[in-house]
Amino acid sequence: MLPPIQKRLDDFRQQGRVQAGSLIISVFGDAVLPRGSRIWLGSLIRLLEPLELNERLVRTSVFRLAKEEWLRTEPAGRRTDYLLTPSGQRRFEEASRHIYASSAPRWDRRWRLIITVGELPPKRREALRRALFWQGFGILNGDCFVHPSADLSAAFDALIAEGLSDVLGKLKPLLAADAQFGNAANDIDMVHGAWNLERLAGVYAEFVEHYQPVLEQLRADGQGDIDGESAFLLRILLIHDYRRLLLRDPELPDVLLPPEWPGQKARLLCKELYRRLLAPSERHLDAHFQLANGQTPEATPTLHERFREDDPLALPG
Prior knowledge:
This protein is α+β, with helices and mostly antiparallel strands.
């Protein structure tokens, strides 16, 4: 049997279909953003080559991301840097607050509601539903979107960024406190009506199943035994998989979740594994990350603040 680290990398390489654009988004958010939000296309191609993403696939994917206004180009002689657009950087920074958080958000016990007022064309209603779903909102009866802690202003800004500014006049944002009538539905009833937690729990359990053996190998071997390239590739896959999980997760406060919620175990696992991979993967980037002008920018100090609270490396493993 292959060691868990090699098996995880090989499993990715052997996939029949790779969503390269989504993976490149993860690379930009995790590795490029801390180094100035830009990278030479040739450097990106070389960094991803060990995952068997060929040059043509990477080029096609970044062209598509530029067309979707995630990225923009900036020539430097005969080479070209790809940079995050302002809207792309805003999306990444917002996502980062969720991905690299050390703990689940606290709850002020007030629900955030977005209610549709009036009729929307079916296509715009579906686009709205999908956009709010990816922000973590649950849906009650098709016309009411709920979340326990979302920033409603940020939610509306995100809808504008998704090209849905024309529907804002049909939406009513509300903050709702629990009136606590004796026979009324409670908060847990609200959760079960708005989200399918059983399905989400299964996805979290699958994430833990994939990465727990990797963490155990690093704990047993010592983090100095992993080479820089493997550390970088594994770090990207870890954050890529975790980011896609969080896109489905409303990040409910602990008080609204079932006992032994697997999302908590997944968060701790991701946190410890990321911290163990960070130093060797950054050494790899120091050696192979380049801008079009040949320079290698240093990572900002904020990189090392990710998952910093209650550093799991200080815990017995």
